Fold:
Amino acid sequence: MILLGSTGSIGVNTLEVAKRFAINVEILVCGNNIDLLNNQIQEHQPSIVIVGNKEDISRVNHSRVYAGMDAILQTLRDSKSTLVVNALVGFLGLRPTLVALASGKRVALANKESLVACGSFIDTSMIQPIDSEHFGLWYLMQEREVSKMIITASGGAFRDWDVKDLARATLGDTQKHPNWSMGQKITIDSATMVNKMFELLEARWLFGEGEYDAIIETQSLIHALIDFKDGSTTAHFANASMQLPIAYALNKKVDANILSHVNLLEVGSLEFREISKERYPIWELKKELLANPARGVIINAANEVAIEKFIAKEIGFMDIAKMILGAYEKFQLEPKNVEDVFALDTEIRSYLREQKC
Structure:
């Protein structure tokens, strides 16, 4: 397989699963965590390694090291591996997804932005989602008529804050996730609920037209639920670990025990909450966006610029949602092809970066 984003949490877990199932790792791609990358090279012996910056090539303990996006795309085209795990973060993960699919490869997808920005033009039949929520929906699917698909959210770092205090939230505050440790961007996205909006869009592209929603489940033990038309509801319980969906994406059939079972007696009780627009203003777009999912490129571009500005202390935490809502209102466009997606992404970013905060 080819692993894009080997040193992030998804990448690290993917390599653990690959080792367990004796899956050969042909190519490792990472950003700038060279120390961890060198450890991965020593253990998994890839044929090719690609890093983000040319300046880091000399630090990598491997004879075939390349750098940059062009190297990633060319390697995807040339590789004989049939599986690509895309765990890159952000819009930069889109081109590798498109090239991998065009090359006839199956994609285990953790890069949300690929489907959020470009779902209209992606053949999802060759995609196996790694997100636990989409895996949960897939796991629950039966030959029965579905009424609604529901995914769950943790609520993020500020689920218990007084709403009046959110305007003063800092970058450090956003990283205090109540349930687990993730990368910086996705933890911010969890706090704004943008992450869950993205996952609803992903679900729409993966499973087709229908009714989708999300609720907060504070312990992150239920990952998805399906309401069937007969009045029954099923839920997917699993202890929080990405290794279960990764195992199915890599190995297709999984008979071995991957996780310990959820002990409901130890859990005792579960708490569910509504996702409110007051705490998570981005939720104003849910109905509109699910009705017009091709416009996901707008919220993705706006979100990435807003996060840049928040990290640079140019805007406050609640301004992230304001920027996204403003961009969605201004850019009343829908891409007609892949080229439009990239052009619109560039236009939105340029516009928002020039705006005075």
